[in-house]
Amino acid sequence: MIRARTFIDAKQQSHSNAELNWWIFMRISGLILVFLVLGHIYMTFIQVSESDATFTAVVGKLANPAWKFYDWLILALALMHGTNGARYSIEDYIRTRPNRAWVKGVFYTVVALVFAFGTIGLFSI
Amino acid sequence: MYKGREGQWAFMLHRLSGIAILAYLLIHVFSIGSFIFGERFYMAIHETYDWPVFRIGLVFITAGVVYHAFNGLRIIVMDFTGAGVAYQRQMWYAVMVLTVISGLYAAWTLLPRLLGGY
Fold this sequence. Notes:
- The structure holds two protein chains of two kinds.
- Chain A is mostly helical.
- Chain A has a single domain (18-124), classed as Fumarate reductase/succinate dehydrogenase, transmembrane subunit (3 helical TM bundles of succinate and fumarate reductases), CATH 1.20.1300.10.
- Chain A has five helices and no strands.
- The mean pLDDT of chain A is 92.
- Chain B has a single domain (7-115), classed as 3 helical TM bundles of succinate and fumarate reductases (Up-down Bundle), CATH 1.20.1300.
- Helices cover 87% and strands 0% of the residues of chain B.
- Chain B has helices at residues 5-33, 39-49, 52-80, 82-86, 88-116.
- In chain B, helix 1 (5-33) packs across helix 3 (52-80) and helix 3 (52-80) packs antiparallel against helix 5 (88-116).
- The model of chain B has no long low-confidence stretch (mean pLDDT 94).
- Classes of the chains: A mainly alpha, B mainly alpha.
- Chain A binds chain B through residues 27, 30-31, 33-34, 37-38, 41, 45-46, 49-51, 53-56, 58-59, 75, 78-79, 82-83, 85-86, 89, 110-111, 114-115, 117-118, 120-122, 124, and chain B through 15, 18-19, 21-22, 25-26, 29-30, 32-33, 35-36, 39, 42-43, 46, 49-50, 54-55, 58, 61-62, 65-66, 69, 72-73, 75-76, 79, 105-106, 109, 113, 118.
């Protein structure tokens, strides 16, 4: 049972290892993304031309719930996978604590906004 | 730079390709998602992406994703099997071969569209 009064107490008393969970998440999401993203690139870049991705074509394709789900799955998994990967890099290369704090703050905000924007876009059609 | 040979190059390229893909993804979500602002807004961005520079950039994004995907599989094999660690160098060269082949294939399919302007 966790009887924490402060965040530090909670951290010390928690049994789960967040870092290990992220490590496992990177492997599992990576494995799924191999198929999703390579399939997406094949269907939207190799098979069709850049000039085929017109407004009408995009809106028409995304009206199908199956593509909506496919694209949203890529959006969610790739953003989490990429954000965690970038977090590893930030922690490795940004040396001081205050710099790490604001770089992460700005970066997580941008990612959250893009995720919200993409989700609203997908489900607004 | 620390000269850890193939293992170190694989690590560096994995990070670089990962950051490049993330940067592309953030821009991609915005530009494709911009259809919610209407057709004119979307097409204004999209016609800029029709410039050859951006089209050729997609070939590099493809190669970067293929590298990141297959090197990621190499990492998973290394993490869960001993043989994966023993053969990490050979697997990295296999990943590089796949990356170059798919980059060339993407460029090959792009070329006629680039010349034909469609």
